[in-house]
Specification:
nine-stranded mixed β-sheet; alpha/beta; 22 strands; single chain
Length: 420
């Protein structure tokens, strides 16, 4: 892919300095057109089911609903978000699917009350749903016994993963569902983020084996998520045609064996929103520590946790407040304001701090941390009593506030000091 520039002046045609001055920093900015572009690339699949855990702002959910995406929810809160964003509770295919390895008490009550379709990741879920709502159709999430991912923390298959029903327990799970009056009409298999084609072929083969074991009641198979996006200049964009054909071949085999159509779903989260999102932050200190140059900004891992959690790489660009783009470059460490040594945006997995080649900058200039639309705001926290930042959506050349900045008073609302 083309080399990213380390100096920028706009996001989706809107001046970054004006965005920062209007909405403050730290600030998440999303480009609606990029979301549309990525969604349209997946239209070959029968169902594009957005994994909203990547970015669950109501405006993003509503945009994807209007494009035709259905939605995945992993908690009662995400079900409520989908409903408020305009998704109906039930339909064919299910507009909302609850995917998890457990029911907490709230989520069980909600899926029973609203008739939400459930993707069961444990036999206890089958038991608890069957006792409360016999006669329902369910999907089983199967752990095929192997996994893959860009980080050990995003590997969702294999014996050390908590996700899915272990493949050797499929027979027991099917017998349990039948006894409870539940019909298994769908299968879901997801082994981790960034899976390559060698692993994908293994997943497709495992899906075929499981589907044949379940039989003709299967009407839907889900490829899960994990589609990678290019964070680094050296990263290649995934071959979606090849990806689809691998799954489509599996689907055709099942249709031939079962004698009916089988719906093929994909469950992207990051792929739809990561490249659409930018974290705008202001440089508040430039300092030397021995031979190291630091840019310290007003965003920290309370705003974007991926670098400290996974050693994740994000492109970074400088926005000169004075519009002077003739600047030398230096090796820089970018850090945040938190009282933690790990509050560094330029680090690798294991906490190894590295430098990034960036243009000269001063206090008052801005940094844009790019490809930050997935697992950014949703993983935010109030650590160090920092308010949650604002979110803005740019659509049709117009920036709109889609979440106001949290006030300081809201930091302690709900708390109380015991009297006496």
């Amino acid at each position: 892919m083309a080399e990213r520039k380390t100096l920028r002046c706009d996001i989706a045609g809107i001046d970054v300095v004006s965005l920062a001055e209007q909405f403050g920093t730290p600030l998440y900015v999303y480009d609606a057109e990029t979301i549309r572009l990525r969604f349209n690339e997946l239209r070959k699949f029968d169902v594009v089911r957005y994994a909203q855990k990547a970015c669950s702002n109501l405006a993003i959910l509503s945009l994807l609903r209007q494009l035709g995406a259905l939605v995945d929810a992993v908690s009662a809160g995400e079900i409520h978000r989908a409903l408020v964003a305009g998704y109906p509770a039930a339909g064919d295919p299910p507009p909302i699917v609850y995917t998890a390895d457990i029911f907490d008490r709230d989520s069980l009550e909600l899926v029973v009350e609203k008739g939400i379709h459930v993707n069961c990741g444990s036999r206890d879920m089958i038991q608890q749903l069957g006792e409360r709502a016999p006669g329902r159709e369910i999907t089983l999430r199967i752990n095929p016994g192997f996994g893959h991912g860009h980080s050990r923390k995003t590997n969702t298959g294999g014996e050390f993963s908590k996700h899915g029903i272990w493949f050797k327990e499929l027979g027991e799970a099917l017998a349990q569902a039948k006894e409870l009056g539940l019909s298994v009409t769908g299968l879901h298999m997801h082994i981790g983020s960034g899976s390559d084609f060698e692993h994908l072929a293994k997943v497709c083969s495992a899906m075929e084996e499981v589907a044949f074991a379940v039989g003709p009641s299967v009407r839907t198979i889900s490829a899960g998520g994990g589609l990678p996006i290019p964070y680094r200049d050296s990263d290649q964009r995934i071959d979606l045609e090849r990806y689809f054909e691998l799954w489509n071949t599996t689907r055709r085999k099942l249709e031939s064996a079962f004698g009916h159509l089988v719906r093929l779903e994909i469950e992207p989260g990051r792929y739809l929103v990561a490249e659409a999102g930018y974290l705008v932050t202001e440089i508040r200190a430039v300092k030397k520590q021995a031979d190291n140059l630091f840019y310290l900004v007003d965003a920290g891992f309370n705003n974007l946790a991926r670098p400290v959690m996974y050693g994740a790489y994000h492109p970074i660009s400088v926005v000169p407040r004075d519009r002077n783009f003739a600047r030398p470059e230096y090796d820089v460490i970018v850090g945040g304001p938190l009282c933690e040594s790990g509050d560094i945006f330029t680090q690798e997995e294991g906490g190894v701090v590295v430098t990034r080649r960036l243009p000269q900058a001063s206090v008052g200039d801005y940094l844009v941390i790019e490809c930050a639309g997935a697992y950014g705001f949703v993983m935010g926290s109030n650590y160090n009593a920092k308010p949650l930042c604002a979110e803005v959506l740019i659509d049709g050349g117009r920036p709109q506030l889609i979440r106001r900045r949290q006030s300081y008073r809201e930091l302690w609302e709900g708390e109380s000091i015991p009297q006496g």
